[in-house]
Amino acid sequence: MRLFVRSLLGGFYIGLAMLACLVVRNISPDWGNLLGALVFPIGILLVIYAKGALFTGVAGQFAERKIATRHGDTLAFDGRTFLRWLSDLGISLLGNVIGIAVLALLAQRQIGSIDVRVATPFWQLFGLGILCNIMVFLSLNSKNIPLQYIPIFAFVLLGFAHSIADISLMFWAWQFGWFIVPVLLGNLVGGSLFSLLYQEAAKHDPDCDCDACYDARYDACHCVSFDPWAPWEDPDASDEEYYKDEYDEEDYDGDEEGYNDDGDDEYYDDGDEEDDDEEEYCDPEEIAKKAGRTSEPSF
C-alpha cells in the first residue's frame, strides 16, 4: 500500500512537470525544446524529495534487491525476490498511471501531441527508453540537486523516452498509442542492466577491513567515495593530506599528530592511532553523511 501511495504521488509530480514542459514549449518554437528541458527535471526532484515513486525508479532497483548475486564463479538467482520486484513494478506503474489520470481530470486541459512518438520505429523507441533510464538512474543515485538535475535535463534535451512522462503526454493530448510498450521495455532493461554495472563498479574493496564501511545494499565499501560523479578517495593518503582536506588550511599546523584550531601545540590524543583512524573512516553516521544517503532509497 505504501508503494502504491508513493506511486500515486510520483505520477502526479511527473504529470505536473510534463504539463509545465508542454506549456513552455509553446512559448517559442525555436527555444521550446531547451525551455522544456529546463523545466521537466523539477518533476524528478519532487519525486526524490517529496516521497514519490516511479516505475523507472523501481526498475533501477534490480541490483539493489540482490535478485542475481555472484559468489566467486557461481551466479545465484533469487526467484522469490524477483517475483516481488515484478510485483512492485506493476504496483508502481499502476499508481503512476492513476496519479497522472487524476491530475488530467482535475486540470481538464488538452495540450501536446504524440505524433512524433507514434511515427518512431519500435526498436528506436526501445533504445531511447534504455538510454533514458540510465540517465534517471544516475539522477536518483546522485546526492545533491545539481547532479540530480543534470541527467534529467540531458535526457529531455536529447529526446530520450521516459515511459511515465510519455503516459502523461498521452493523457494531456488525449491520444493513446501502443508506442508506450517499447518505451516501458526499454526503461526496464536500461534501469536493471545499468544497476548491475553500477553495482559492479562499486564492489566491496578487498583491502577494506572495516565492517562499518560495508554497505550490503550495494555490496560496496564506503571507505572510498560512493558518489558516482566524484573521484575515488585514497584510503592510504598520509595524515597530512587527510587533515588538509578535512580542515581549512589556515587551521592546519602541519603537525602529523593532529589538528590545531588555535595555534597552540596542545592536541588531545588517546594514544591509540589505529582506533582514531578507524573511527574517522568507518563511523556509520559519518559514512552515510559523506555518501549522501539515508537508510531508505528516495525512489
Can you walk me through this structure?
The chain folds into two domains: 2-201, Glycerol uptake facilitator protein, CATH 1.20.1080; 211-291, no CATH class. The chain is built from 13 helices and four strands. A hairpin with a 4-residue loop joins strand 3 and strand 4 (220-221). Residues 207-212, 222-281 and 293-299 have low confidence and may be disordered. The longest helix is centred in the N-terminal third of the chain and has 29 residues, at 79-107. Helix 1 crosses helix 5 (79-107) and helix 9 (163-173) runs antiparallel to helix 10. 57% of the residues lie in helices and 4% in strands. It is globular and about 55 Å long. It is mostly helical.
Task: Indicate the topology.
Layout: H1 2-25, H2 32-39, H3 41-49, H4 55-59, E1 68-71, E2 74-77, H5 79-107, H6 115-118, H7 122-140, H8 145-158, H9 163-173, H10 180-201, E3 214-215, E4 220-221, H11 239-246, H12 273-282, H13 284-291
Antiparallel strand pairs: 1-2, 3-4
Helix pairs in contact: 1-2, 1-3, 1-5, 1-9, 2-8, 3-8, 5-9, 7-8, 7-10, 9-10
Short description:
With 299 residues, the chain is mainly α.
